[in-house]
Amino acid sequence: MRILIADDNAALAEGLAYVLQKSGHVVEAVTDGQATLDALERGRFELLVLDYGMPRLDGAQVLGRVRARADYLPVLLASARDDAPRRLAEQGLVVDAVLCKPFSINAFESTIEELERGICRSAPRHAVHFGPLVCDPADGSATLDGVRLELAEDERRLLERLASHHGEAVAADELAQIAGGPVEPVIARLAERLHATALRIVTVRGIGWCLATA
After folding, report:
1. What is the pLDDT of residue 55?
2. 8 A C-beta contact, residue 95 and residue 85
3. How many CA atoms lie within 13 A of 194 on its CB side?
4. Residues 105 and 164 in one domain
5. Rounded to whole angstroms, how far apart are CA atoms 27 and 47?
6. Which residue has the higher pLDDT, 138 or 17?
């Protein structure tokens, strides 16, 4: 999963990020509320680990803006304030799980695993559109101008993720996780399959790749 950790304790945020990265997740850590919103604006995340007391914007302000978005982002509230869940509930703000600080690494990992299982079960299976390309995760198809592309499963997964980012670069490590191994050979095969089409895969130096229209 792509996970964003928002906590004003930089050492704690980095420690939690390290734990998650060891489990294969792609993680970014920020230390204030505005940086949280900026990160969510820049990239796509599948889970937000959110502290309540943060500078610039607190957890309630961040969550209010997150919940105003069209897409639903699962949120794990990790706070030392016992009243934080009640305060959020009074504002009509819903979180998906709560951990009270201090918590053990085992409790943190177990909560993340439970949320990941729930996210996978409830993830929307809507088709992803990018120009003439339609990737439908419900039936595992990818069509270009209505013609089905014959792709290997790792190629299809990468194409779907690239399409879902609407022309934004996707990090190499994220794509490697999706490919289940070295990503460069899969990207090369996919680029070759798209060579004569209206789509192309562009290398973004220092980041990864993006899907673009020719």
Report:
1. 92
2. yes
3. 25
4. no
5. 10
6. 17
For 146, phi then psi, to 5°, come to: 85, -5
- 151/194 Cα distance (integer angstroms): 11
Specify the number of domains making up the chain: 2
Backbone angles phi and psi of 170, in degrees to 5: -110, 130
Structure confidence at residue 122 (pLDDT): 47
DSSP category for residue 98: E
Secondary structure of residue 43 in the 3-state scheme? coil
Answer whether 176's CB lies under 8 Å from 130's CB. Answer: no
Q: Are 99 and 77 within 8 A, CB to CB? A: yes
Are 99 and 195 found together in one domain?
A: no
**Dmax of the chain from CA atoms?**
59
CA–CA separation, 62 vs 42, rounded Å?
Answer: 15
pLDDT of 81 over the 90 cut: no
Same domain, 78 and 98: yes
Whether the Cβ atoms of residue 193 and residue 185 lie closer than 8 Å to each other: no
pLDDT-derived band at 121 (thresholds 50, 70, 90) equals low
pLDDT of 123 > 60? The answer is no
DSSP state of 191: H
Q: What pLDDT sits at residue 200?
A: 93
Residue 140 carries which DSSP code? T
Q: How confident is the model at residue 37 (pLDDT cuts 50, 70, 90)?
A: very high
∠ CA 24-29-34, nearest 5°, is 145
